[in-house]
Amino acid sequence: MTITLEELEARVQALERTVAELRRERGEPSPVAEPPIWLLEGREPTRDEIIAWLEAHGMSVSEPTPEEMALAAEWDALSEEEKQAHRAYMDSLELDPPLSEIILQNRR
Fold this sequence. Notes:
This protein is mainly α.
């Protein structure tokens, strides 16, 4: 049986996600991760490098849906002033309970 490099990388990433999930379920602390190569090299990472790093640390990343792509295009089309107004509005919102509490509740 011959396995391509891409298939092998996908299998390794799947195993790493499974191990990370099992550690979380058992309440084990995550091992100290090596810094990503782009950080060591002092450069900006590519999109693929970020996705691979997130998946290696147990984060599931999917391709954006057509709806998400359309919303992103709408955002990109806004002027900087409109974007800043949206950011200011979002920053002014007060959630009850706070977002951090919502996240903690959803992890339980």
